[in-house]
TrEMBL record:
This is Magnesium dependent phosphatase 1. It holds the Pfam family Acid_PPase. The lineage of its organism: Eukaryota, Metazoa, Chordata, Craniata, Vertebrata. One of its GO terms (molecular function) is acid phosphatase activity. Signal peptide: none annotated. PANTHER family: MAGNESIUM-DEPENDENT PHOSPHATASE 1, MAGNESIUM-DEPENDENT PHOSPHATASE 1 MDP1. Transmembrane segments: none annotated. InterPro entries: HAD-like_sf, HAD_sf, HAD_SF_ppase_IIIC, MDP_1_eu_arc. It comes from the Eukaryota. It comes from Papio anubis.
């Protein structure tokens, strides 16, 4: 069997969903009675169609997942992760991070929860 990653980290905007959460949609978001997620204006908000299948497959293989984003709309991004039932890790913003930051400590800070697996270099 192929070697699996110890952690799959996904960006949010234009990776899980086809928009920038801080500019193309209007929080707060809600889930209607038919299960559709909508923004403040009533506009439907959707994931890319393949996302649920990919995440379910990773979960079935025992690969923990995390979300990472540079969005300024942290509350809206977290709300969408919850409404789409994608929360397995917590999304945090650390504006002081830069390219020279220690990636191992960044991942540890992003992903806290029962599915955490420390990443080895």
């Amino acid at each position: 069997m192929a070697r699996l990653p110890k952690l799959a980290v996904f960006d949010l905007d234009y990776t899980l969903w086809p928009f920038w959460v801080d500019t193309h949609v209007d929080p707060p978001f809600h889930k209607s009675s038919d299960g559709t997620v909508r923004d403040r204006r009533g506009q439907d908000v959707r994931l890319y169609p393949e996302v649920p299948e990919v995440l379910k497959r990773l979960q079935s293989l025992g690969v923990p997942g995390a979300a990472a984003s540079r969005t300024s709309e942290i509350e809206g991004a977290n709300q969408l992760l919850e409404l789409f039932d994608l929360i397995r890790c917590y999304l945090h913003s650390y504006p002081e991070w830069n390219e020279s930051s220690n990636s191992k400590s960044r991942v540890r800070d992003i992903c806290k929860g029962p599915n955490w697996a420390e990443v080895q270099p």
